[in-house]
Amino acid sequence: MQTSKECVLNAIEGKGPDRIPICLDFDSDALNQAITKDILKEYDADIYIVSSYDPEFVPVAEGYSQWGYKMETFGETMGEVKNPPLESWDNFENWKNHLPDFTAPSRYTEAKRLRQLYPDKFLVGGLGMMMEEIINLRGYANCMVDYYEEEENINRLIDCLYEVGKQMVDGYAEAGMDAVMAWEDWGLQRGPMMSYGMWEEYYYDRMKSFVDYIHKKGMKYFLHSCGHITYLLDVFVEFGVDVIQMDQQMNMGLELLGKWNGKICFLCPVDIQHSVQMTKEEMGSYIRDMVQALSTEKGGFMYKAYPQPAAIHMTEAQLRQEIDFMKNC
């Protein structure tokens, strides 16, 4: 039987995993832990994700993130930023000066501990939301206008985020991680968040350089993106993005996504907009269709449970059912 690390690498590289690799990574708040705590005790996982957090960093105020904002939650969801710290560009230098030290050794202590504890697991260092942080820092409306009217400032912020990203890549590489992962939602429900031309202008060269940087450090690159993102998948393949993590598939369709079968490795749960409404038979059928559409005989598909089951009102029983289907697929 392949070790977890061997199985994951074989799935990513199309070399024949002996099973579908499993990632069980859940948010640590009380609502999600109530659903997942027993699952984490009873189910083994192949992929572990290490959060990007420095325990020695002191935020600007209680409840604020390392990026200097506070999320206002709505029930079970992660919520949104009410008062973006960069609502005015005049605050840019002050904001930047209060960022944590992303080269601090304490930030990577947990990654090193897990590497020693799990030598045969596939470990992924979390980079955070990367480009999605622009929306949290500026506000969505401001951010969309910035690409047209604040080019100098938005470029300063993008460069800052990529520089921080490279610092974290360095830290995770030194800690012995197998991959790093960024969370970026580049799509809306039915189409792109921005035109391809605009995305290309601001992100093409930067992301290509970033992926190259990760690979030179000997790690794989996992990229999360929800929404309708088929307009970017060819570019991600061109860059060498190793794994695309999608929590939605049905808004694009398995048949369309199958165009990238064998070109990039997919990491997915059952579509989170539909999974809780599915009967057991419907879920089993969808999982079989998804695996068939998105993988080849040599791999190309892995499973990642949705980290916030409470947000989609998924019960522990439904989550167990989904995991069991994947493990037996």
UniProtKB/TrEMBL annotation:
Q: Give a Pfam family name.
A: URO-D
Q: Where is the Uroporphyrinogen decarboxylase (URO-D) domain?
A: 76-272
Which SUPFAM superfamilies does UniProt cross-reference here? UROD/MetE-like
Query: The organism sits in which domain of life?
Result: Bacteria
Give the matching InterPro entries.
Methanogen_methyltrans, UROD/MetE-like_sf, Uroporphyrinogen_deCOase
Q: Which PANTHER family match?
A: METHYLCOBAMIDE:COM METHYLTRANSFERASE MTBA
Q: What is this protein identified as?
A: Uroporphyrinogen decarboxylase (URO-D) domain-containing protein
